[in-house]
Amino acid sequence: MTARTVTRRPTTVPAAGAVLWRRKNDQLQVALVHRPKYDDWSWAKGKLDPGETWVSAAAREVLEETGFRPRIGIPLPRSVYSMQRGQLKEIRYWAAEVMGGSGELENEIDEVAWLTPAQAQTRFSYVRDALQLQAVVDADRGRLLQTWPLVVIRHGDAVARKGWSGDDWDRPLDDLGKRRARALVPVLAAYGIERVVTSPSARCYATVQPYAAAAGLRLRTKRGLSEEGFAAEPAKATRHTDRVLEHGEPAAICTHRPVLPAVLADLRRRTAPGSAAARTLGEVTRAGMDKGEALVLQVVGTGATARVVSVERQRPAGAFLPTL
């Protein structure tokens, strides 16, 4: 009898980071960090903590390594490479701007250098980092780097209708929905959300209330985003979306499954035909969003000229997560 050879797939180590950028004297600059332990220059990044999302890890690592609190922007190409013992390391990156922070460094990092793209090209220690640099440069040339986030959220899991004797308007989140609401806090914080608009229904309100409380924000309730309000006057939902686009502030909108197709179709009109953003919005509109899912759109411009340039799905743990 011949023994069968079992091929083991290499373990993948997940990590996340961001390319911090700014403009100084109208010149694009990016931030590289120096690790004295390895004497190398690279992007701010690090491994995910257990249960942490990619984007939350990227924001946390940038803060820890640079002392600056980032606002996560457009997604950048990822890096995948081999490590010792047959492991693979996958690093997902985003562009990011500085929202705040002191710039105080920890022991692991002893210097942060703001460099022009040409200077960064000669400074970083790993050829693979050129992929993210080129993506930032290309986005800047195409005027797609300076964005603001709009996050569309479907409320979390709620007590079943058949098990609820009260008004459907007051039907609360169940335990799974409450956990998802708490898990959304670091996700929305990574995007620096400053304005939260929600259906006044209890299950929507409770989905975004933990983030609003943590960020010190007032929730703005709109009946037009509720199931009842949408059924009575469907056009109101997209009017609320349009008002958010007019403000141009990092914002989140929380609503219900029956309302989402109208909201997403309105946003899809603001994408380039045939673009990845248009395709993703079309797919999500057809298939629907998971309960508790956050759909992150990066937007250029405001009002009538607003354009959606990227779309990412931040899905609850346990949901199918496609490879970016």
UniProtKB/TrEMBL annotation:
SUPFAM superfamilies: Nudix (SSF55811), Phosphoglycerate mutase-like (SSF53254). GO terms for molecular function: bis(5'-nucleosyl)-tetraphosphatase (asymmetrical) activity. GO terms for biological process: AMP biosynthetic process; ATP biosynthetic process. Residues 11-137 form the Nudix hydrolase domain. Gene3D superfamilies: Nucleoside Triphosphate Pyrophosphohydrolase, Phosphoglycerate mutase-like. PROSITE patterns: NUDIX, NUDIX_BOX. The keyword Disulfide bond does not apply. Keywords: Hydrolase. InterPro entries: His_Pase_superF_clade-1 (IPR013078), His_PPase_superfam (IPR029033), NUDIX_hydrolase-like_dom_sf (IPR015797), NUDIX_hydrolase_CS (IPR020084), NUDIX_hydrolase_dom (IPR000086), Nudix_hydrolase_domain (IPR051325). This is NUDIX hydrolase.
